[in-house]
């Protein structure tokens, strides 16, 4: 079978492409420019023409994916901005929403062979960022309406961290709406994955911390550099990038999803210090994270039962991240 992966050069997508190729799928990946493909071609050269890269320069343009969706069986839509460099909420929201709706529209018109679409949403589409309580339970009924409302009301004057949350929530809602409104005329179904923070080794070309994707950069700044995280006092969830890639493949083969497990940034620091893979990590406040991380539950029955997923534990994820940082010489 042939799978289209949008944003194929991303941290998550490179692992997804690798997992698909190793399982024997043919992959068509979209990238924004030719230069983004060189590293991919290099790391996947053993797979020869099983990997095809196509350029979609602007995912917000009407019909951007018209050519890319032709002849594929499954579409995995991962492309979406996740960074802290935006100067306007629309820098995040427009590509997230238009990119998602655009790929669905192209499939409706030209992707007649597509049976399933998997959209990489996020826990960002589920959390209430204004919740100051330390007990959080998220399931498929949880929606981050507060981020949408706040960004809508305050625009550029809202905290930039909310723009990403609003972008993911609006994009996921738009995907479900599209499927509902077009159910009579489409031949594919939709699976949405809502991962929490994604960690793990990176297949990307990383020369310095500036080349890390957002989640690994936050881990690097918080754990290795010892800078307080910008959301310090709440519990977070995590998943290993290799597990998330596997879940994307199983979602193509099977059905629906979620994710469970939690941490507080201090827990990551405690593990990183005890592993002693990278020396001199600032210790912070050892043990202080435990009671906080205990409050976070992400219901993951679907992921476990339908996809049959088992997740790598936190210690293993952090060990592999630190080993990877060390290999890439990101140790100071
Ligand atoms: P990366 O930043 O590594 O990759 C993002 C991908 O999306 C890249 O291919 C990037 O292309 C593309 N992209 C970003 N902005 C645009 C844009 N404006 N137009 C077209 N393409 C764009 O991110 P991740 O791999 O970490 O994230 C992948 C997906 O997973 C995203 O949808 C993200 O929201 C979601 N996710 C990630 C989590 C995490 O912790 N990492 C947690 C939960 C969800 P280019 O390189 O050209 O910019």
From TrEMBL:
The keyword Oxidoreductase applies. Residues 3-260 form the NAD-dependent epimerase/dehydratase domain. SUPFAM superfamilies: NAD(P)-binding Rossmann-fold domains (SSF51735). Coiled coil: none annotated. GO terms for molecular function: methyltransferase activity; nucleic acid binding; oxidoreductase activity, acting on the CH-OH group of donors, NAD or NADP as acceptor. It comes from the Eukaryota. Keywords: Oxidoreductase. GO terms for biological process: methylation. InterPro entries: DNA_methylase_N6_adenine_CS, Epimerase_deHydtase, NAD(P)-bd_dom_sf, NAD(P)_dehydrat-like. Belongs to the NAD(P)-dependent epimerase/dehydratase family. Dihydroflavonol-4-reductase subfamily. This is NAD-dependent epimerase/dehydratase domain-containing protein. The lineage of its organism: Eukaryota, Fungi, Dikarya, Basidiomycota, Agaricomycotina.
